[in-house]
Amino acid sequence: MRKHGVWAALVAGCLTITPAFAVDLKIGLGEDPDALDPAQSRTFVGRIVYTAMCDKLFDVAPDLKLVPQLATSYAWSDDGKTLTLQIRPNVTFHDGTPLDAEAVAYTIKRNLTLPESRRKSELSSVADVVATGPLEVKVSLKAPDATLIAQLSDRAGMIVSPTAAKALGANFGSHPVCAGPFAFVERVQQDRIVLQKFQDYWDKDKILINKVTYVPIVDTTVRLANLRAGDLDLIERVAPTDVETIKADPKLAFSQAIGTHYVGLYVNIANSAKADNPLAKDKRIRQAFSLAIDREAISQIIFDATAVPGNQPYPPTSAWYDKAIPVPARDVEKAKALLKASGHEHLAIEAQTSNDPINAQMMQMIQSMVAEAGFDMSIRTMEFATLLSQQTAGNFQMNEQEWSGRVDPDGNLHQFVTCGAGLNDMKYCNKQVDDLLNDARHSVDPQVRKAKYDAAAVILDDELPVIYLAHRAWLYGASKKVTGFIASPDGMIRLSGVTKTN
């Protein structure tokens, strides 16, 4: 009986979603998201969908500053160990459940306790969270954490309906219920995700679209062809080589933003028996592989000069970048010497990548480059969700991956390289790195934090669990019928103020 009551509430909530005007938008995504549960998901395109579906405690402004969303204000205690949040009044979830302090506390606790949650390392500083009033939440910390507000501006801060979450448990992603401008309608794997405008949204006057449909199309050429044919209204991650085509088309508009994104190679250090190989066991081999890569050539040829070469989780233009460790120039002879010193003149390596054409081309270029240093690299291409599941299971030796990046440097490092972190599929573990990154969380002094990140960068650049390659720009194509869209440096597609003429 209880479950029937929950679904009745869900249906009642959906009945409030009525078409105010017939403005529908179709957005082409580069791949299909994984589970649509903010606690469990890890894909970039999933975050794009969440931007329309799941409001957060804080959001990221175009200048990459953090601004209030579901939390209207916050205050720290003098010792930095208690965060008090004031929650926006008169907000409801898509199923009609009120969004109050209890719902916020429930969501954060769910992120910390759900066995399948990937948010645990992001919120590892949290000791307890309680509702201290109808719209007030107190978060108690084990130690000061300068990154927490930034964490709450992403999936860890997306508040979900306790009614739906309790009913669905780990299966919440099958029918997600949040408090964003659009409510979930349906999902057909590898085909579409459909959302409808939520008429009770707290800021509904800025939402001018009635329905948004996300269509995953891996092939960039096909994605662009659909845009030009009018079957899509907006596409993300345009192929760099297609930029001029979009600019030359009188029916299309091009926009871009430079952000916090990186492209890298994740090396399986200790995740299952697949890590029992020389690449995982000897850092000299990883150093040799890295030195055999011409990052400038990749940026110029594969990304058509729209990307910046990189060797750290943030671009050389970032204030957090360690200038004492510049992007390495290609050095084939040194790479050969390192490989030989490790006891190998030639070494076979298997690398996996998604079936995105650009990624495949990049890996083929790397394959050719490293061959000159003695590496016989084979490439396995697969659908992106499969790639992630294989990575999680440890069924990889080296995986090409991208990370959309975060405003705070912690979001680009801690959850990937600290022991046991939620996204550390490499199972890399170095206590010294853990201590440095944890200490950086505990300080609110930017100079102190920078020193900690620089010290960690020295170790990571030496051990290379991740071989960073480049930082891509976000490239978009849209029909000129679409107005109000602004490319954001964080790569998200925000629909506030966006509309379309017929």
Please give a structural write-up.
By secondary structure, the chain is an alpha+beta fold. The chain folds into two domains: 2-207 and 475-500, Dipeptide-binding Protein, domain 1; 262-471, Dipeptide-binding Protein, Domain 3 (Dipeptide-binding Protein, domain 3, Roll). The protein contains 16 helices and 21 strands. The chain has helices at residues 2-14, 44-53, 101-113, 148-151, 162-168, 220-229, 243-248, 278-281, 283-291, 295-302, 332-341, 357-371, 384-393, 410-417, 431-442, 446-463; strands at residues 24-29, 58-60, 66-68, 71-76, 82-87, 126-133, 136-141, 182-188, 192-197, 211-216, 234-235, 252-258, 262-267, 308-309, 347-354, 375-382, 398-403, 466-471, 473-479, 482-483, 499-500. A seven-stranded mixed sheet has the order 8-9-10-1-11-19-12, with helices on both faces. A six-stranded mixed sheet has the order 14-18-13-17-15-16. It has a four-stranded antiparallel sheet with strand order 4-5-7-6, covered by helices on one side. Helix 9 packs antiparallel against helix 11 (332-341), helix 14 runs antiparallel to helix 15 (431-442) and helix 15 (431-442) packs antiparallel against helix 16. The longest helix is centred in the last third of the chain and has 18 residues, at 446-463. It is globular and about 65 Å long. Mean pLDDT is 94; it is low at 1-20.
